[in-house]
Design brief:
Helix content: 40-55%
Oligomer: single chain
Number of strands: 3
Length: about 260
């Protein structure tokens, strides 16, 4: 079973970074991301994930967002996002990856590197498995791989990634960050998929096979196991182009 765990780690790391930036990242988004990843696991990986993740990977992808985890791991709050200076639509790791106390490397990108290193070390050296909690490392990494693709998890520092911009989603009062985290995908589920998450996931999988088949080689190009900096750069670019556009305080937004 230990060898299966190692094979699983390698398989999961390979695919976690191939999922395109197509979802918003509330609970449904994280579940969908990891559910799609599971479809690309080898049989050995599928068997090992049931052992190490105590079930399916998708079921634990929202684990870092649970209130009891946030409370029990207060240091992890800064690891879900990164911010750029206001109106700067380009991510710079040295400038932007720090927490509110300016401690370097404490952002979603730094966290992805950290947990990738932990999992890779277990893959290359069995002895290091005893040093790290690999189940937690996988759950954090799986979650952060989703977070970094939500544009406002790489938003402007002045509005805390849209959290302080109060808007209306249709007629519901909320904030811009929540719109992109949850409201868009929930509205899309209801409007296009009869509130059936399985149907939506199936549609995305078909798009990967068909419509996006020419892009998969680009997703795979990387000199290392993890390449989150391009993802952060893509997200802030999308935030500037779409998320912040016309999103002034009090504005009414919808999916039309």
């Amino acid at each position: 079973m230990e060898s299966m765990k190692i094979n699983w780690i390698a398989g999961v790391l390979t695919f976690l970074y191939l999922v395109p930036a197509i979802l918003c990242w509330g609970q449904h988004g994280h579940y969908a991301t990891c559910k799609i990843a599971e479809e690309y696991h080898t049989e050995a990986a599928k068997a090992a994930v049931k052992e190490s993740a105590k079930g399916e990977l998708a079921a634990v992808c929202s684990w870092p967002d649970l209130p009891e985890i946030r409370k029990g791991y207060p240091w992890s709050s800064a690891l879900h996002y990164t911010n750029t200076p206001d109106f700067i639509c380009k991510f710079d790791y040295c400038r932007d990856c720090h927490d509110s106390a300016n401690q370097k490397n404490r952002c979603v990108i730094g966290a992805m590197y950290n947990y990738t290193i932990q999992l890779e070390s277990a893959y290359h050296n069995y002895g290091t498995q005893k040093k790290y909690n690999l189940t937690e490392a996988l759950m954090f990494l799986s979650h952060f791989a989703g977070d970094v693709h939500q544009p406002l998890h790489v938003g402007f520092i002045g509005d805390l990634g849209g959290n302080t911009i109060n808007v209306y989603w249709y007629n519901q009062s909320t904030n811009l960050h929540h719109v992109w985290d949850t409201a868009i995908i929930d509205s899309g589920l209801e409007r296009f998929y009869d509130s059936n998450l399985t149907t939506m996931i199936g549609t995305i999988l078909r798009n990967i096979t068909d419509d996006w088949s020419n892009e998969t080689k680009f997703w795979e190009k990387c000199n290392h196991t993890v390449c989150p900096i391009p993802y952060a750069s893509e997200s802030i670019s999308l935030a500037c182009k779409y998320a912040y556009r016309n999103a002034t305080p009090g504005s009414h937004l919808n999916a039309i």
